[in-house]
């Protein structure tokens, strides 16, 4: 059967089965969705492939396995957002190239990744130019993270080793991942940059499946994210300008000399009286708290650019929210029709590795009607690693997932590299 | 009192006088022998910048060797802005001025909340658009941040920001219990009260009021009468200031002032969920007080505005505005002595305001400050906690809204035989003895940990020239129990729905005892620890908003890291209420 004919025949069908393969990537996400149609036709969608805890050797094994599972080709790749734990494999020598051979027909990313989203461009209301106000620009944010990771001991001289490692670990999630982005751009010509209510780019590739993009919202759609941007404008970027813009050599001379008042005389801290030193210690630790808070906000802001995808086939629904946190969810969850559709979710990829505010408790969790039922029973898929991100996964959420759903967690995989879950339609 | 004059920036560098120069003011500060910093007996400026790790050389005390010398009086604007020494003086002078304002109103010295004498202040603490009071560092931190084209904005040059932060520190010294988790009103009170004090003290500077009134005709000494109507004053003075605030340096402050002024009063505000957020709640307080200020100002103007002619002398108008702002500011500060020790509500504050003023001015006077306050608070559904209409009609209180006399609380007369009058004014043990002996009459719950936290003799001067002598003592009670044991305190006490029996809870109570010159109890502002109504409401609020400490206990602290409580509070200012959608580990 020629390709054309095959496409035509499949366009009128709906899948008979969906298989979800969850790979153990430690702290990260990697999911392969395989839609099987009558006559043996299959369509593959890869959602994310990255890890912040696993090394290249492990990721090579994962990609090899993924390559086999998808028979060497996928129809689409979705990269939910720019964090390392969702795309690192694309940037690794070896695994990245192998992923490149998957030959996707389309790469789908959030609208904030659109190459036309320029930092200086302040003109709303088009979706793409609004990126600057959403996050100023992801690449500039990541430059800051990069700087923190590389020079944290210098700019955060007062930090203890534990605090320092907490900050750098969080910031390292946010670093640029330039190679990965380049590889994604190279992979195929067709790219979709999606937002709440936009087309997903999967319409023709997945016949019989309704794919809805629930997030991220655009600026025009939400005030919540706008207020987050305000915060960045006010503090993050100021700090960024002051700290990150300095070169390494500049830093070495910065101590004891003021850029604010170049003519003002300064005193050596070492010679100051003890009560002044006491206050200086307090101030240094306050500064540290500020940086910690800003890094947390940066992490959160990038999470909130996550794509949220809802797949519906007949009366079955599968939900893949990436790392979207409350602010990203809020806009979508206002829609009452959507609430009804979400209630039918049978497979839920647990948001943000099980963190405290990525599964909105009242607005989302309470909607799922297959919690606590026997058949069908909600399947929850949790890709996570304890001790890698402060308080993730959240114990109370994991307990609830355990008692109210059929929970599959990569933490329970042992030596297995992946697990399959099949949903018959 | 000997004073010295110091130059300060009257509002912030963006507010200019009629000649286009930064509007300055020369203010009177209590004279003291200053050390380098300046470093005085209550305030010590340490200019350390943690973002650049630079310690600026302190301002030389030789500048102040001569009492009459004001080292920055004739320095041009650009040099003033570029001199960290001036920034240090600006912060020192504004803090000291406000401290003396509080001491003058209360008629006694005031301690800082952290127990030491000298408050630190850091004019260039970090590169961040924030300024806050840190009880842990015993100081006020002021940030700076670059805006367009490399221009730097310094929060330490804004009179309003300095006054606001200083008020947090002063309030913490007077009522350190107001940072203990309570209900929505208490959470809003710290912010609202600091806003009120900062704004009224700005309106107390005649240069600023004049600049705001004369915006249309900066060179003229006259103002049109139609610009003196209530609405026009609200617009020109209150919103005018908000507009000025809007210039980068005080954008946060502009937003809150504007919101407070334009927000339409709602009688049901306290029942609406949106008004539960602490900053929005605080804005109710600012709105009620600031609108009373405009009403009183207008009344003062009406008493002399001539029927003929269209314009009047602007100086006279300014003088009335400043007097009204000053009187209200004094009332607000004095009210603190009559506020409950724990769980303050706006209803309590209104009664405290009215009582404080009544004690000095039994007659509400020509301009009816108290009447205006009752009216403006009522628009927001705030009624005095005491002195209700029935109490007034029964003769239990001399005026609507005044705290009741303690005799009304119990039939048993108070026993004074057990205490020595003089000791009662000086010795906390003596006050405790009084409490102990009268625990039944005063209806004090015996099975709680009880202690006297402060004892403050004070003397206030009434406008008639007579001095009012009072001794204000505060005692506090705490009871740490499990949620399942609440009914053992009072049968009507209930844990919030869903709270496990084993949850650790701290109940608070206590009271303010105001003694007269003869050692007799005038007022007992009592927050009973076994009051089921107050405790149930508080626990429900804490439970619903998950306000817990690091050990997951309710009512102990809000879980902020040391010294960061106010930093976080300010950063939350512009945020909406975060819906409680999170997963908390028990």
Structure, described:
The complex is a heterodimer of chains A (425) and B (586). Chain A is of the alpha/beta class and 425 residues long. Chain A has one domain (3-137, 171-227, 301-424): Ribonuclease Z/Hydroxyacylglutathione hydrolase-like (Metallo-beta-lactamase, Chain A). Chain A is built from 14 helices and 14 strands. The longest helix of chain A is centred in the C-terminal third of the chain and has 30 residues, at 274-303. Chain B has 3 domains: 3-174, Elastase, domain 1, CATH 3.10.170; 184-394, no CATH class; 420-572, no CATH class. Residues 573-579 of chain B have low confidence and may be disordered. Chains A and B meet through α9, β8, α11 and α14 of A and β4, β5, β6 and β8 of B.
Can you give me a brief rundown of this structure?
With 425 residues, chain A is of the alpha/beta class. Chain A has helices at residues 3-11, 56-69, 84-91, 95-100, 131-135, 138-155, 161-174, 178-187, 224-244, 248-254, 274-303, 326-333, 336-342, 395-404; strands at 17-23, 28-36, 42-51, 76-78, 106-110, 191-194, 210-215, 266-267, 308-313, 316-320, 345-349, 379-382, 406-409, 418-424.
């Amino acid at each position: 059967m020629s390709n054309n004919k095959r496409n035509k025949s499949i366009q009128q069908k709906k899948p008979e089965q969906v298989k979800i393969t969850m790979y153990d990537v430690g702290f990260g996400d990697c999911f392969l969705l395989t839609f099987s149609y009558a006559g043996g036709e299959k369509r593959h969608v890869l959602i994310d492939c990255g890890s912040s805890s696993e090394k290249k050797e492990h990721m090579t094994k994962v990609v090899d396995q993924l390559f086999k599972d998808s028979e060497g080709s996928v129809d689409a790749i979705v990269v939910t957002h720019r964090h390392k734990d969702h795309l690192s494999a694309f940037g690794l020598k070896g695994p990245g190239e192998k992923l490149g051979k998957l030959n996707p027909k389309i790469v789908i990313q959030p609208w904030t990744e659109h190459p036309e989203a320029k930092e200086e461009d302040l003109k709303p209301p088009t979706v793409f130019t609004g990126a600057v106000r959403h996050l100023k620009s992801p690449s500039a944010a990541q430059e800051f993270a990069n700087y923190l990771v590389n020079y944290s001991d210098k700019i955060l001289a007062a930090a203890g080793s534990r605090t320092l490692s907490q900050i750098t670990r969080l910031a390292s999630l946010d670093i640029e991942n330039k190679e990965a982005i380049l590889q994604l751009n190279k992979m195929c010509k067709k790219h979709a940059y999606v937002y709440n209510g936009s087309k997903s780019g999967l319409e023709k590739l997945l016949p019989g499946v309704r794919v809805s993009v629930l997030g991220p919202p655009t600026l025009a759609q939400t005030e919540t994210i706008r207020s987050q941007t305000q915060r960045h404008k006010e503090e993050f970027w100021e700090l960024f300008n002051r700290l990150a813009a300095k070169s390494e050599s500049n830093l070495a001379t910065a101590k004891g000399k003021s850029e604010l008042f170049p003519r003002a005389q300064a005193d050596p801290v070492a010679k100051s009286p003890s009560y002044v030193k006491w206050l200086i210690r307090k101030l240094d630790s306050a500064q540290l708290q500020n940086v910690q808070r800003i890094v947390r906000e940066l992490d959160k802001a990038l999470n909130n650019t996550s794509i949220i995808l809802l797949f519906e086939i007949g009366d079955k629904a599968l939900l893949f929210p990436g790392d979207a946190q409350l602010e990203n969810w809020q806009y979508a969850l206002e829609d009452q029709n959507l609430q009804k559709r979400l209630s039918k979710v049978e497979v839920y990829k647990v948001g943000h590795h099980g963190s405290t505010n990525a599964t909105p408790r009242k607005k989302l969790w309470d909607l799922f009607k297959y919690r606590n039922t026997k058949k069908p029973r909600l399947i929850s898929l949790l890709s996570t690693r304890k001790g890698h991100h402060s308080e993730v996964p959240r114990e109370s959420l994991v307990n609830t997932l355990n008692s109210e759903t059929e929970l599959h967690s990569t933490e329970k995989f042992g030596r297995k590299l992946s697990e399959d879950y099949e949903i018959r339609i | 009192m000997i004073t010295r004059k110091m130059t300060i920036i009257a509002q912030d560098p963006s507010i200019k006088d009629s000649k286009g120069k930064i509007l300055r003011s020369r203010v009177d500060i209590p004279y003291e022998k200053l050390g380098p910093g300046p470093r005085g007996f209550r305030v010590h400026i340490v200019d350390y910048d943690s973002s650049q790790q630079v310690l600026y050389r302190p301002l030389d005390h030789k500048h102040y060797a001569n009492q009459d010398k004001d080292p920055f009086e004739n320095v041009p604007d650009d040099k003033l802005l570029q001199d960290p020494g001036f920034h240090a003086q600006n912060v020192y002078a504004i803090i000291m001025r406000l401290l003396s304002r509080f001491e003058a109103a209360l008629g006694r010295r005031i301690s800082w909340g952290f127990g030491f004498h000298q408050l630190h202040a850091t004019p260039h603490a970090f590169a961040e658009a924030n300024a806050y009071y840190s009880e842990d560092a015993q100081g006020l931190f002021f940030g700076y941040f670059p805006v367009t084209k490399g221009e730097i904005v310094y929060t330490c040059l804004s009179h309003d920001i300095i006054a606001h932060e200083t008020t947090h520190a002063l309030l913490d010294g007077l009522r350190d219990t107001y940072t203990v988790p309570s209900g929505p009103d208490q959470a809003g009170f710290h912010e609202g009260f600091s806003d009120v004090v900062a704004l009224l003290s700005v309106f107390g500077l005649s240069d600023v009021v004049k600049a705001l009134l004369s915006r249309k005709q900066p060179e003229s000494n006259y103002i049109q009468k139609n610009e003196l109507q209530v609405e026009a004053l609200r617009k020109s003075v209150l919103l005018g200031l908000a507009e000025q605030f809007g210039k980068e340096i005080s954008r946060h402050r502009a937003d809150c002032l504007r919101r407070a002024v334009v927000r339409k009063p709602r009688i049901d505000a306290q029942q609406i969920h949106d008004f539960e957020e602490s900053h929005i709640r605080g804005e109710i307080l600012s709105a009620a007080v600031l609108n009373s200020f405009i009403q009183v100002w207008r009344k003062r103007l009406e008493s002399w505005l001539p029927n003929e002619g269209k314009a009047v002398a602007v100086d006279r108008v300014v003088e009335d505005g400043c007097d009204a702002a000053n009187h209200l500011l004094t009332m607000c500060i004095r009210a603190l002595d009559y506020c409950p020790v724990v769980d303050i509500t706006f209803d309590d504050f209104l009664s405290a305001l009215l009582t404080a003023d009544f004690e000095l001015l039994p007659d509400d006077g020509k301009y009816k400050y108290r009447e205006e306050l009752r009216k403006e608070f009522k628009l927001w559904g705030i009624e005095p906690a005491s002195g209700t209409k029935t109490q007034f009609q029964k003769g239990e209180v001399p005026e609507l809204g005044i705290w009741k006399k303690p005799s009304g609380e119990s039939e048993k007369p108070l026993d004074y035989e057990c205490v020595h009058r003089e000791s009662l004014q000086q010795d906390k043990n003596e006050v405790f003895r009084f409490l102990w002996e009268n625990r039944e009459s005063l209806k004090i719950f015996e099975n709680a940990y009880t202690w006297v936290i402060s004892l403050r003799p004070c003397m206030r001067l009434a406008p008639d020239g007579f001095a009012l002598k009072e001794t204000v003592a505060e005692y506090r009670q705490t009871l740490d129990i499990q949620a399942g044991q609440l009914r053992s305190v009072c049968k009507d006490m209930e844990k919030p729905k869903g709270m496990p029996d084993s949850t650790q809870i701290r109940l608070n109570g206590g009271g303010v005892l105001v003694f007269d010159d003869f050692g007799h109890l005038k007022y007992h502002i009592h927050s009973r620890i076994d009051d089921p109504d107050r405790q149930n409401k508080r626990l429900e609020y804490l439970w619903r908003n998950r306000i817990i400490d690091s050990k997951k206990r309710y009512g102990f602290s809000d879980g902020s890291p040391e010294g960061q409580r106010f930093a976080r509070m300010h950063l939350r200012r512009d945020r909406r209420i975060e819906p409680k959608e999170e997963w908390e580990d028990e």
